[in-house]
Amino acid sequence: MADPLLQLQALNKHYGGIPATDNLSLDIESGEVHAIIGPNGAGKTTLIAQIAGSLAPDSGRVVFAGEDITQLDVAQRARAGLARSFQITSLILPMTLLENMMLAVQARSGHSFRFWKPVSREQGMRESAMHYLQQVGLADRAGLLASAISHGEQRQLEVGMALAMQPRMLLLDEPMAGMGKQESARMVELLAALKQDKTLLLVEHDMDAVFFLADRLSVLVGGRLIATGSIDEVRQNPEVQRAYLGESHA
Amino acid sequence: MNLRALIRLRALVYAVLLILLAIAPLLTDLAGKPFMLDVLSRTLVLAIAVVSLNLILGFGGMVSLGHAAYLGIGAYSVGIASYYDLYQGWLHIAIALTSSGLFALVTGAISLRTRGVYFIMITMAFSQMAYFALVSLEAYGADDGLVIYGRSEFPGWLSMQDSRGLYYWILGILLAALLFNWRLLNARFGRVLFGAMHNDARMQALGFSTYRYRLAAYVISAMMCSLAGVLFGNFNGFISPDIMTWTRSAELIFMLIVGGVGSIFGPLAGTLVFVLLEEWLSTLWTYWHLPFGLLLIALVLAGKGGIDDWLKRLERVRRRNG
């Protein structure tokens, strides 16, 4: 079997005496959709931050595509093929959707120490950006400011920008956060379409979405992974039932 | 739709302004007030410095309170070279660009590790270090300053020996700086700076090492400002460390705010209004600083976007009525 795309090896992160990540190891296979669930305060966002590089672990290693990336910063990891979307919408609000998307395309098309040629005349970048806007269903909104569209659409744009980076793996931190039912449904549809050819690591509260999308599931409680496996395996795990699912099904 | 509504007010104002600046030596001669050309020369030198500040502050959100240091480095490049009887103009420019670039690279690399108020303070600290270094350099006049006995020498029609030649040098470099800023803002580099100003985390997550782009912008801006310094040295014929006090840096920021932070022509408009207002008020009243300060406060309160933004808003009103 091929090596896992992402390996977390004995990650530890403590805040004061409290472990936010407790000796956590996890392998994500290439091509799978892996969801991480857990109650509030379980350390999900802390974990994502350590994978994305915005937070350094106290100890342990992050290995991506066979390379130890523990020492790389956010931008370097992004260029290595690890794209993230944020839990809180994070866009360049005074730019249009197209301009936002073009930044994502620009990020992976060579260096940006170019001072003279307007990006609006870089035809290839423009077309590529339009392609990704189309893919997330925002092509007809290309000229609007990112601040002028709905929350759901902003989240779609975020996913689109992550896609436009042509990453090897997508880290999605609660892509459905704060969405209405309809918006959520559209996002699930979008992510389901990505399943075909992308590796996704998903942190999400919406259980229906998780059960629909995920190939495998990990449950995080108090910074510790208490179970990893297929959905059924995890569902039947007694510790999980006690700690998490039971509680939310009660 | 009538023709009046079609003409963009803002573009029109700037076009007229540029034409007036282009024929200013003629106008001041005709009016028999050649000293007005001196006032204008000094103003446009400052405008170049403000345009360069706009590159980092307006396009990249880096509020530097030490930008006058580069004005000083440029001016002293002329002053110190002339002190050793080196008057070749291109040499002066080369010294100014190299020394300001190096100083910016080193101090920028450190300053840009901080943000917000810390960045303001650390850039100010570095410029004060440069200031006190020059104050203590007895060889170059210390705080008494240095007289520059001859202007930078350029061949043929490039000569800046007479005030008209120097004026066109200043105007030429100002226009080049404006053009450069405009192209840069819309090119890849400018997009990255702009994005990082509004959402640095997002830009890093996209894979941009924003620190490097900021540092590059900081160095370019410093070099641009040093050209203003070269021109200042030539214009003034005398330089002292006073040129790089932190209050001067603050003035540059003020001019930029009055004109319109982040706009292309705003820095020019802001500098003109600031300096001409200062000139005019100081002829009216000994205690002109008071009304001047009040006027500036009113200007800033009246509109956040500065003069450039007013023109934009006027344009919109006209379009609605036209």
Structure, explained:
The complex is a heterodimer of chains A (250) and B (322). Chain A has 250 residues and is α/β, with parallel strands linked by helices. Chain A has helices spanning 44-52, 74-80, 97-107, 123-135, 151-164, 181-194, 207-213, 231-236, 238-249; strands spanning 6-15, 18-28, 33-37, 59-64, 67-68, 82-85, 169-173, 199-203, 216-221, 224-230. In chain A, the strands form two sheets. Chain A has a six-stranded mixed sheet, with helices on both faces. In chain A, α3 (97-107) runs parallel beside α5 (151-164), α4 packs across α5 (151-164) and α5 (151-164) packs parallel to α6 (181-194). Chain A is globular. Chain B is built from 15 helices and two strands. The longest helix of chain B is centred in the last third of the chain and has 27 residues, at 210-236. Chain B is an all-alpha fold. Helices cover 75% and strands 1% of the residues of chain B. Chain B has a two-stranded antiparallel sheet with strand order 1-2. Chain B has a single domain (3-320), classed as Orthogonal Bundle (ABC transporter involved in vitamin B12 uptake, BtuC). At the A-B interface, α2 and α3 of A face α8, α9, α10 and α11 of B.
Write the layout of secondary structure elements.
The complex is a heterodimer of chains A (250) and B (322).
Chain A (H helix, E strand, L loop, with lengths): L5 E10 L2 E11 L4 E5 L6 H9 L6 E6 L2 E2 L5 H7 L1 E4 L11 H11 L15 H13 L15 H14 L4 E5 L7 H14 L4 E5 L3 H7 L2 E6 L2 E7 H6 L1 H12 L1
Parallel strand pairs in A: 3-8, 3-9, 6-7, 7-8
Antiparallel strand pairs in A: 1-2, 1-4, 4-5, 9-10
Chain B lengths: L2 H4 L2 H14 L1 H7 L4 H26 L7 H16 L5 H23 L4 H21 L9 E2 L15 H24 L1 H11 L1 H7 L3 H27 L1 E2 L6 H14 L6 H19 L4 H14 L3 H16 L1
Antiparallel strand pairs in B: 1-2
Helix pairs in contact in B: 4-8, 4-11, 4-12, 4-13, 5-6, 5-7, 5-11, 6-11, 8-9, 8-11, 9-10, 9-11, 12-13, 12-15, 13-14
